[in-house]
Design brief:
This protein is α/β, with parallel strands linked by helices. The protein contains 15 helices and 16 strands. 32% of the residues lie in helices and 18% in strands. Bound molecules: zinc ion (ZN).
Length: 516
């Protein structure tokens, strides 16, 4: 039997020969450790049931029969599990942490982990191994031990510029979770759009927008897959839509006026509603690419007031971030900001989301900040689809070239910006090569920098197998990087805009292949 292509590749895989058959006996699950079988434990079980159902078509009535047993012998690789799936919460050791797992296949399949999240990730690996042919459900015998290098494994989509339906977002969350990503960042506001329903300011929204109930449903859907949905409200820049609807809060330039006290109370009201909808421990407040209006009387008066205080923040921007951070903290959450305005006035308890070309995430972490690395050069998804685009992510690591561990470096995140408007939300996925990039990102965030010792060509083989097996009806613009294909892109320079296929190479996906 051919060894299955696993993405992300686990830390340790030992194929022990032969295969386990889950259809020979009456198919069933055994859920072990009933004293720990709480709601989040059930999520791992449900994920396994879904995976089997998708593969076999067996309905909930046919499969599984849920059996709760309390049998210590089941932990041994022995007969009690034959032909069955087992999920066991147990102490598997410190190195597995909060998300690691041990997966043993043969004669049954047993996932063991310290936490329900670990069980869930073990199930995702098992899912990639299961085959269903001629009515038989099988997996190759193995022992896998696995845990992630980074705790923050994120992906962002930009709803501010291009609204994306909740159904579409659920699909992307589901796929991200299958590749063991655990943060889904919603960029809810931008120049052209304010997609967050604020009940205190009912007129503050642009069509289409998300109701708070829709967003709560999305949060629940993601939580069932161990994915945290982090909301972002971009302030005080990147907010034309907000300024059009709230003109009294506009500065002399195209930003919110940081000299206006009413701005602070308005944003506090909005953030209270954001926190109410999103249980995320992190709230992103943007603060990207923005300065106060130099000629604004309100800003000047505010700055005169601030700068008269001893130990004041060095800029109006860092004053603004400090104030919003107090609001976020009062809601029991942690503030995340883009790295734009990093001066000594930025509180050390703010998480810095590094993106700028030339910036150095480990260096920011070394200053005492917690850091998410989304370096634009590597993990922005809007650089086109030239041959190097997946290889570049594969060769990247959140810790750049600094040896691990770097205190405070939480992990990394891919950023799926798509500035031009689209008529069809799936165009975003196709234009950005979203899935090929996502899989390379998932591999690196889970495996960490050491995984780069594995040649790209080996990863590419797995990538192509996933393309053909799991993405046959989704846009996945990735041909094998043959020399001939590379030649088509000779003269290509970095970065470039949205991809257009060379005239001689038609897209392998036509629109009829897209999901409805
Ligand atoms: Zn102002």
């Amino acid at each position: 039997m051919q060894q299955p292509a696993l993405i992300p590749l686990p830390r340790s895989v030992h194929w022990t020969g032969g295969q386990s058959d889950f259809s020979r006996l009456a198919p069933r699950f055994r859920i072990v450790a009933p004293e720990m079988a709480g709601p989040s434990f059930e999520l791992a079980y449900e994920a396994l049931a879904r995976a089997v159902n998708e593969l076999t078509g067996w309905t909930a009535e046919e499969f599984p029969v849920l059996e709760i047993v309390d049998d210590p012998d089941i932990t041994a690789a022995g007969s009690p599990l034959e032909g069955a799936f087992g999920l066991l919460l147990t102490d598997v050791g410190e190195r597995f942490g909060d998300e690691g797992y041990r997966l043993t296949v043969g004669p049954g399949a047993l996932v063991q982990a310290n936490t329900p999240a670990g069980l869930f990730y073990g199930v995702q690996t098992l899912r990639q191994m299961l085959r269903f042919e001629d009515g038989r459900l099988t997996a190759p015998c193995c022992v896998i031990e696995d845990w992630p290098a980074f705790g923050w494994r994120g992906i962002m989509l930009d709803q501010g510029r291009n609204y994306q339906s909740p159904e579409f977002l659920r699909r992307q969350i589901d796929i991200a979770a299958r590749y063991k990503l655990n943060v889904f960042h919603l960029h809810l506001t931008e120049y052209p759009g304010w997609r967050f329903e604020t009940r205190a300011f009912p007129h503050l929204k642009t069509e289409p927008y998300y109701t708070q109930d829709e967003l709560r449903d999305l949060v629940d859907y993601a939580a069932a897959r161990f994915v945290n949905v982090m909301p972002e409200i971009e302030m005080p820049g990147h907010c034309t839509a907000f300024l059009d609807l709230m003109p009294h809060l506009k500065c002399t330039n195209d930003t919110m006026c940081m000299g206006s006290e009413e701005l602070y109370s308005t944003l506090e009201t909005i953030l209270r509603e954001v926190a109410d909808v999103f249980p995320s421990p992190y709230i992103h407040i943007g603060t990207d690419e923005c300065e106060g209006g130099a000629d604004c009387p309100r800003c000047q008066a505010k700055w005169a007031e601030i700068s008269a205080q001893p130990g004041h923040p060095p800029t109006l921007m860092s004053y603004f971030i400090s104030r919003m951070n107090e609001v976020v903290k009062s809601l029991g959450r942690t503030t995340v900001t883009w790295n734009d305005q990093l001066d000594e006035g930025i509180p050390k308890d703010v998480v810095i989301h590094v993106w700028k070309p030339g910036s150095d995430a480990p260096a920011v972490a070394a200053k005492g900040y917690r850091v998410i690395n989304s370096h634009a050069r590597d993990v922005y998804f809007d650089h086109g689809l030239a041959p190097e685009y997946v290889r570049r992510i594969y060769a990247w690591s959140p810790n750049e070239e600094t040896p691990l561990p770097v205190e405070g470096l939480l992990g990394g995140q891919g950023e799926a910006w798509h500035d031009p408007p689209v008529d069809d939300e799936w165009q975003i996925i196709e234009d950005l090569g979203f899935y090929p990039r996502l899989l390379a990102l998932a591999e690196r965030l889970w495996q960490g920098p050491d995984g780069r010792a594995i040649p790209f060509e080996e990863f590419e083989k797995r990538l192509l197998e996933h393309r053909d097996r799991f993405f046959s009806r989704l846009p996945f613009p990735y041909p094998e990087q043959t020399e001939e294909w590379k030649k088509r892109y000779e003269g290509w320079t970095w970065p470039r805009g949205i991809w257009t296929p060379p005239a001689s190479q038609a897209s392998s996906q036509d629109s009829a292949d897209r999901p409805a």
